[in-house]
């Protein structure tokens, strides 16, 4: 790839970005678009245009983003979002502090080296001007390499210091959130799984109540047995569907009255397949009938479910936070794989289906899924390798000769050269996240946030292995394949050899990613178009319109691994080709700014895990750091630098740092510390409300019967006896 | 070594054993020896000779041992001893069930093989008759090897089944012991370590009380701050020394009155170095004065210690067992390395000096000690290798030619051949345990039983690595040294090659060990002689006599690794040379019988850990089993058996079995399950007694002052405010 191509790529991306940004300032000022650009504000009941201040300055959003505090983020979007900003600003800090030293020091050191250049260690093509500034330009076994060794240490030490501060800060954020005096339902509940068969013929409900009453005679409030809700959910969804359809039919009817015919036309539909065949009926009557049919059916099924479909899992409620926090951490049964406990997540993120899964079933599922993910990572390796090997312009011309006349046009050529390989990659990666989330849920994880973390971890390893290592190595795969066969252990040195060759690829990748994807992110063109189309042609009722502009959440499962991929790339190249650092800084700086806006005004978090994402982020950052150190170790080896082992202490240091951080902070992310849970609440919790918030919607009957004596939700049974 | 030498060794050992056994029956019948043979009974206030039944039948002890139940063992010697018997009977079961199949099947299969024998795979020397019965006698790549593969599976599967049953049984034993309705002080207390500096200038005592009162407003009883007791302990020991000397002097004076002089002679001593120089004084007066001097000094020092030498660790007491059990498992502080908690061991096994050691100090200490142990294991390897290489008779004659005339005598020769190498080994191993216990305590472990477990683990790895692998490999070290240098990975195949050569060595080792050491164990000749000598020449007071016959405990730290060494040897040879199995059966069978007697009548346990030793034993047995499977894998490889990989699933099976057992049972050995702790007590615990039982003797003043307001032991401070 030529230098010109790179500049073209950069230029086009930048133009796209600027266009999208102006589009944003123009579109976001229109009140009719406010539900697309300010849904979080609207849902929180704040008028986005109060005082009209938003209409004047097109860059007002930047000022607002910069002046917003962490407390604002927590208030508007929760602790998890704040933790995400801690992640971004920590990474930004690492890159800025690295760049401040590495750029002025390493670039001159590399550029002024006059020793012979090994031709095989420079970027593919003739990327001369940039290559002069990279480590590849320094001669073998040169004393100048010491500067690069010191730089490797500098980056690592900066990372340690900032990560330590970040971990401490996030731990404090979590502490403050958990000791808040607000009553949060999940702080009073625990999940109990693997309930053994009752020996003396008690119902599950009685068994659980008896068990926990005898252990916590004072603090035990009530239990809720998990039931098999498949059938009741089905009926409930059907009912909700009819309710929506009824509302829609009524809205259509009301609308029609406004037109020429003051009587209006009653909407009708066919009862058969997809409303296309069958008898034609009056919609309002038909749906009303259906609803009236289903309500008693639902109630009957609810009773049956609660009474007869109790599963060996439960939620147990306590009257105070300390007991709940302590109970979630304590071993309850002598047989460790029975009565296992876990702190409850928020009601909305409970994965009910996973609760009754058995202890060893979960272990087996987990292992099977690890194998599947492993296979996925390595079977995708092959197509990605092929794509990045074939999508060079030369290969394209060779393989598809008929494209030659088009491709040889200078403009087309430059654009294709700039985007072809990267686009293939990006499209490719877009297919995966849903599959990984599905796999993570299949592990038996009980909460949405935990499943998101698990999926995000898988996606991280996937993207680092496939995109970074895969592209790097496969770009030199065809001539190196024999070497790998000979010495399969030489992956580190192979990686180190291939890195400089792929430098320009990744520079373009980072640039493309930040300009185009951030432009799309900020302008929200796609959601805007979808919203307007839906509103115009589909939505009839208020609820439907609201659904059309529902902004969704930040999407940690893919956003964070995407950032991590960039971080890994930038870290690994930081010393080899320091010119990449500014790109990384722009990526994370721009990201901070844009997402601050999005988090404050657009996205609505779909769960709150009080920063549990952080240890996970920390581990991934450390993995990237270790990969970077390992690569540098291999790289200095390739440069025949005899002092390459001076990098070994750095790897040891990383291991120690990781160990100390994990020992010092991690467990408080797993469970709630009692000193935090024991803080006073501002009011005595209404346990009935706490309890009710966990009842799944399909089971919450309008009228509560107190006569449902032994069912899964009923009040503590009258027996006061202990086990 | 010749077959004759082996028989001689066996014969002599057996004769020694029979002699010692008769000595035991004769000596144990004399009432004057009862404190040596029945100290545990006497200390429990049971008359060993009631009804005179013990005097008739010389084998009565065998009947008694056989008829004693597990409940008897628990009553007389605690759960730990019962767990030790579970270990022995499990191992015995594995060996008996293996032997029942392996002996009748494998011996004929091996003996009738007519194929060519590889000379280098038989025992050293001409141990022909036994060698015929071993796997070494089977030809390479013979189909008969399938019998040995199946045997390998059989032994492993038997082991899995019995170990599973044993783990379940021990878990039940622990459960029953912990849910006992007796009040046990340690079930009401937790250890708190790593207490941070108080931010607002509170004393440690106030800080701890405030902290725990706010978390456990109802169940918190009192705290006891750990103090720096070095000085007060010194004074206390001095005082106790003088008290003993005074008692002794008074006893001598009383004795002298009984003799010729009815007035008696007042004993005197010199005040200088060791009582040899200095002024001669009247002992009774002198010691009385010294005691009167020290008592106020002790009291003053106690006050100073309690008030001013408070350290950042404490014991915290709760008014019920559930809260204590739950508190010991819960995370208390957001900073995980502060306020760390641990369930309290019995008061008598607390290692006070280790309590205030800091979190990361403990980690560092642990790692340093692992390195020291590692070095110890591998530096001892060299001397042991040399010893076992040199102490063959031929080497002895070559190296020390002047011993030739003696050594060539047939009797001397046979005895020397039989015992020389083994004796060196046994003496050698006797030096180590104390050192390993010292190291384990230096790790910062807070309880005696835990330190014993840690020492025992180190000793196990030491003995397996050094004795088993060391002897096996070094016996063929001189011709194989070059091979190792070439392929250092070939340790498994080297082990497999060397095993058959050392078979006879280990047969003799096992035989010697069980006959001689069990003979000494049962007859208690050494403690008997020491006791009688002491009583005759040294002891003057009752207390001194009691000290002279104090039986000590079972000595897990060395006994268990010793057994494990035998088990490892027998397991590894079980298929290669099944003839070793009966020896193993005799070792563990005899061991069970003898130790049943010793545990019921002799040894007094010095601590009770409610079976916490078991998971540790289980891990070691699994390690031995894995070593066995690995060795067999190497061995079949050496036999050029193409189906050797059929043993790989066995290793995987072992890993899964270990994982499942650990997941299912282990955590209930680490902490007390709440369902166990919540059982009713037979009386309301007297918390004052519970609290006092933890006060170290040097600090327990005769009169309790309630005015010691802010010291380490004082009552909850008056402030009722929360944090």
TrEMBL record, chains A, B:
Residues 5-165 form the CSC1/OSCA1-like N-terminal transmembrane domain. It is a multi-pass membrane protein. The keyword tRNA processing does not apply. It is found in: Membrane. Its main location: membrane. Residues 366-636 form the CSC1/OSCA1-like 7TM region domain. GO terms for molecular function: calcium-activated cation channel activity. Coiled coil: none annotated. The chain crosses the membrane at residues 6-27, 82-107, 145-164, 368-390, 419-439, 459-478, 565-594, 614-636, 643-660. Pfam families: PHM7_cyt (PF14703), RSN1_7TM (PF02714), RSN1_TM (PF13967). The keyword Signal does not apply. GO terms for cellular component: plasma membrane. Keywords: Calcium, Ion channel, Ion transport, Membrane, Transmembrane, Transmembrane helix, Transport. Residues 187-354 form the CSC1/OSCA1-like cytosolic domain. Belongs to the CSC1 (TC 1.A.17) family. This is OLC1v1024322C1. It comes from Oldenlandia corymbosa var. corymbosa.
């Amino acid at each position: 790839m030529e230098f010109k191509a790179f500049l073209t790529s950069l230029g086009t991306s930048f133009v796209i970005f600027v266009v999208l940004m102006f589009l944003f300032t123009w579109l976001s000022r229109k009140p009719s678009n406010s539900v697309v650009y300010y849904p979080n504000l609207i849902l929180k009941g704040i008028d986005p245009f109060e005082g009209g201040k938003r209409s004047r300055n097109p860059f007002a959003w930047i000022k607002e983003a910069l002046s917003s505090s962490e407390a604002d983020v927590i208030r508007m979007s929760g602790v998890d979002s704040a933790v995400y900003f801690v992640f971004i600003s920590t990474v930004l800090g690492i890159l800025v502090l690295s760049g401040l030293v590495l750029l002025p020091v390493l670039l001159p050191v590399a550029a002024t080296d006059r020793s012979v250049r090994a031709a095989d260690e420079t970027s593919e093509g003739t990327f001369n001007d940039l290559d002069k500034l990279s480590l590849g330009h320094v001669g073998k076994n040169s004393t100048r390499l010491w500067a690069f060794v010191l730089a490797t240490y500098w980056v690592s030490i900066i990372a340690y210091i900032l990560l330590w501060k970040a971990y401490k800060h996030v731990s404090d954020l979590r502490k403050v959130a958990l000791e808040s005096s607000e009553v949060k339902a999940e702080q009073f509940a625990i999940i109990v799984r693997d309930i053994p068969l009752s020996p003396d013929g008690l119902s599950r409900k009685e068994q659980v109540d008896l068990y926990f009453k005898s252990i916590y005679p004072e603090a035990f409030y009530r239990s809720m047995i998990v039931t098999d809700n498949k059938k009741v959910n089905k009926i409930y969804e059907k009912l909700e569907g009819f309710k929506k359809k009824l509302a829609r039919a009524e809205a259509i009817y009301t609308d029609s009255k406004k037109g020429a015919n003051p009587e209006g036309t009653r909407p009708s539909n066919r009862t058969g397949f997809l409303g296309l065949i069958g008898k034609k009926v009056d919609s309002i009557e038909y749906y009303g009938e259906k609803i009236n049919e289903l309500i008693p059916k639902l109630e009957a099924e609810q009773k049956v479910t609660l009474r007869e479909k109790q599963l060996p899992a439960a939620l147990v409620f306590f009257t105070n936070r300390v007991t709940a926090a302590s109970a979630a951490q304590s071993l309850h049964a002598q047989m460790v794989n029975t009565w296992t406990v876990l702190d409850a997540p928020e009601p909305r993120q409970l994965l009910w289906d996973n609760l009754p899964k058995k202890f060893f079933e979960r272990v087996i599922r987990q292992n099977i899924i690890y194998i599947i993910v492993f296979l996925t990572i390595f079977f995708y390796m092959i197509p990605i390798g092929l794509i990045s090997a074939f999508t060079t312009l030369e290969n394209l011309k060779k393989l598809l000769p008929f494209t030659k006349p088009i491709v040889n046009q200078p403009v087309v050529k430059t654009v294709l050269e700039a985007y072809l390989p990267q686009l293939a990659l990006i499209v490719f990666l877009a297919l995966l996240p849903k599959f990984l989330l599905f796999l993570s849920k299949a592990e038996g994880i009980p909460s949405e946030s935990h499943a998101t973390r698990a999926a995000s971890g898988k996606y991280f390893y996937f993207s680092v292995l496939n995109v970074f290592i895969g592209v790097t190595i496969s770009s030199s795969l065809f001539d190196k394949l024999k070497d790998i066969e000979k010495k399969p252990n030489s992956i580190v040195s192979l990686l180190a050899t291939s890195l400089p060759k792929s430098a320009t690829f990744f520079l373009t990748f980072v640039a493309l990613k930040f300009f185009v994807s951030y432009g799309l992110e900020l302008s929200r063109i796609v959601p805007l178009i979808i919203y307007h189309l839906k509103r115009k042609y589909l939505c009839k009722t208020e609820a439907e319109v609201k659904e059309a502009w529902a902004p969704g959440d930040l999407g940690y499962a893919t956003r964070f691994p995407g950032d991590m991929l960039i971080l890994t790339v930038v870290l690994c190249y930081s010393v080899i080709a320091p010119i990449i650092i500014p790109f990384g800084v722009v990526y994370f700086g721009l990201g901070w700014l844009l997402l601050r806006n999005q988090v404050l005004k657009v996205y609505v978090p779909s769960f709150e895990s009080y920063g549990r994402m952080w240890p996970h982020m920390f581990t991934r950052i450390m993995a990237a750091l270790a990969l970077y150190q390992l690569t540098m170790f291999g790289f200095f080896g390739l440069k025949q630098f005899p002092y390459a082992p001076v990098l070994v202490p750095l790897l040891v240091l990383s291991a120690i740092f990781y160990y100390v951080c994990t020992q010092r902070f991690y467990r408080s992310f797993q469970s709630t510390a009692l000193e935090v849970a024991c803080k006073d609440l501002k009011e005595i919790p209404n346990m009935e409300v706490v309890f009710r918030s966990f009842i799944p919607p399909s089971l919450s009957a309008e009228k509560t019967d107190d006569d449902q004596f032994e069912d899964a939700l009923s009040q503590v049974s009258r027996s006061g006896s202990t086990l």
